[in-house]
């Protein structure tokens, strides 16, 4: 191979559709713009990645837990693994010209995260990359501030060592700047998933002819943040209960409901909502509620294209709906949901998950349905602009990361409007 040796790094494989969509988008760009590139994925689920995307992959960590290990053995192996990973990461980083983190919320702590997990892995990659002359790039990533000092320090250090940084929203860039990183030359671009192909437009028009409208409801296994671990079970039960009440109202109003997941861990939530409605509406639940377990973000887009409106929690469920120009309500578990909706001009259709108000949700839903036609036109126009911006970013990446004559850093390129 005469092209660049590229490693794509992140939590890929294992069932998270959003992360998989970011990987799919980056792969599509590399295959189109740099077909001579030798691409490998370093990730949490290499077997899944090799099977789905057909590229070589290996685990980012030496230690991979199993279901039958004792807690003591797991603790010892995990501790030993962190030492081994330091040497192991140096071994593989030096074999590549570029290590790219494509999208996803790698610099976020809105869900439970510990500094010795993914943050530690990012620190190793960025540090060894700087030492070995391997370019390390954070592309359209999500970030936020954190009260965990160790995690914040790791995020800051990894970001400082990156040869290229871009963020999927302004708030992410602001969070990194507040950590003490100079972001004056960093750009904001849309989430990489907006560059994925959109299902056939004929599918979109098919929903207008149906007499019974279908509502997509995206569910999520939500237990709060790392700081909420003592209340995690109550937070989860409250969310599932309110979502069940809303789905029951949809069924009572004559809608069909399609439950969507965004990660394999969400499947019990979908089952709990269905069971809850079945207990109170046994004559309706089985006929009006179905659950879709999409294998990928592209698969989710295909399935979601058949619904009329969407109410969703997980970030990339909301994104998929907006990409399809579906009138959408976000039940947000983090500020990134609100930023995504605001960027698409849909901020009035948001609610925070921790204070979810079902009567207000029903009011928002009625307004959403009444305004559907105009909202769809607005979303289609915004999607067109987002694709143009991502094409701009990919051109920048080609120049800064994959051009033999390009510099190793990205100062001075103009930010998109």
Account of the protein in words:
There is one protein chain. Residues about 405-415 have low confidence and may be disordered. The protein has helices spanning about 15-35, 45-55, 70-95, 120-130, 150-160, 170-180, 200-205, 230-250, 265-280, 280-290, 295-305, 315-325, 335-345, 360-370, 370-400; strands at about 5-10, 40-45, 55-60, 100, 135-140, 165, 185-190, 215-220, 255-260, 290, 310, 330, 350. The longest helix has 29 residues, at about 370-400. It folds into two domains: about 5-190, Glycogen Phosphorylase B (Rossmann fold); about 200-380, Rossmann fold (3-Layer(aba) Sandwich), CATH 3.40.50.2000. It is globular, with a radius of gyration of 22 Å. It has a seven-stranded parallel beta sheet with strand order 3-2-1-4-5-6-7. Helix 12 packs parallel to helix 13 (about 335-345). It contains 15 helices and 13 strands. The protein is an alpha/beta fold and about 425 residues long.
Q: Kindly provide the radius of gyration, computed on alpha-carbon positions and rounded to a whole number of angstroms.
A: 22 Å
Average pLDDT rating: 88
CATH-level-2 architecture of the largest domain: 3-Layer(aba) Sandwich
Count of individual domains: 2
Give the name of the CATH superfamily of the largest domain: Glycogen Phosphorylase B
pLDDT under 50 segments (min length 5)? 405-417
Main structural class: alpha/beta
Shape by Cα distribution = globular
Bin the strand percentage. Answer: 5-15%
Helix-strand sequence: EHEHEHEHEHEHEHEHEHHEHEHEHEHH
Biggest sheet, strands in spatial order?
A: 3-2-1-4-5-6-7
Number of helices: 15
Helix content: 40-55%
Question: Looking at CATH, which topology of the largest domain would you report?
Answer: Rossmann fold
Largest sheet entry: 7 strands, parallel
Please report the total strand number as a whole number. Answer: 13
């Amino acid at each position: 191979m005469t092209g660049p040796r590229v490693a794509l790094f992140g939590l890929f494989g294992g069932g998270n559709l959003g992360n998989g969509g970011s990987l799919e988008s980056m792969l599509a760009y590399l295959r189109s713009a740099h077909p001579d590139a030798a691409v490998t994925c370093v990730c949490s689920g290499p077997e899944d990645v090799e099977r789905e995307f057909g590229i070589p992959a290996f685990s980012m960590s030496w230690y991979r837990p199993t279901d039958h290990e004792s807690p003591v053995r797991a603790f010892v192996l995990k501790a030993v693994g962190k030492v081994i990973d330091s040497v192991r990461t140096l071994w593989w980083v030096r074999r590549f010209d570029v290590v790219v983190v494509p999208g996803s919320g790698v610099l976020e702590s809105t869900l439970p995260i510990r500094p010795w997990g993914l943050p530690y892995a990012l620190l190793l990659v960025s540090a060894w990359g700087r030492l070995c002359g391997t370019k390390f790039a954070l592309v359209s990533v999500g970030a936020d501030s954190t009260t965990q000092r160790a995690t914040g320090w790791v995020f800051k250090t990894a970001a400082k060592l990156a040869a290229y940084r871009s963020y999927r929203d302004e708030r992410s860039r602001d969070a990194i700047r507040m950590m003490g990183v100079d972001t004056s030359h960093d750009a904001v671009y849309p989430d990489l998933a907006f560059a994925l192909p959109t299902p056939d437009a004929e599918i979109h028009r098919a929903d207008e002819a149906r007499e019974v409208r279908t509502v997509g409801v995206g569910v999520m296994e939500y237990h709060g943040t790392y700081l909420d671990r003592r209340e995690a079970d109550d937070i989860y039960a409250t969310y599932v209960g309110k979502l069940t009440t809303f789905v029951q109202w949809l069924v009572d109003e004559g809608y069909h409901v399609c439950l969507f997941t965004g990660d394999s861990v969400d499947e019990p939530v979908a089952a709990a909502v269905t069971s809850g409605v079945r207990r109170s509406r046994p004559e309706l639940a089985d006929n009006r509620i179905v659950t879709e377990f999409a294998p990928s973000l592209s698969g989710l887009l295909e399935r979601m294209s058949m619904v009329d409106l969407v109410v969703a929690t997980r970030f990339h469920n909301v994104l998929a709906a907006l990409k399809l120009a579906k009138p959408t309500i976000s039940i947000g578990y983090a500020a990134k949901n609100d930023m995504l909706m605001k960027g698409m001009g849909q901020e009035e259709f948001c609610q925070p998950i921790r204070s979810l108000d079902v009567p207000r949700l029903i009011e928002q839903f009625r307004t959403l349905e009444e305004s559907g036609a105009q909202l769809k036109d607005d979303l289609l126009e915004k999607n067109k602009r987002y694709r143009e911006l991502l094409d701009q970013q990919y051109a920048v990446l080609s120049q800064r990361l994959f051009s033999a004559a390009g510099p190793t850093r990205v100062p001075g390129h103009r930010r998109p409007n």
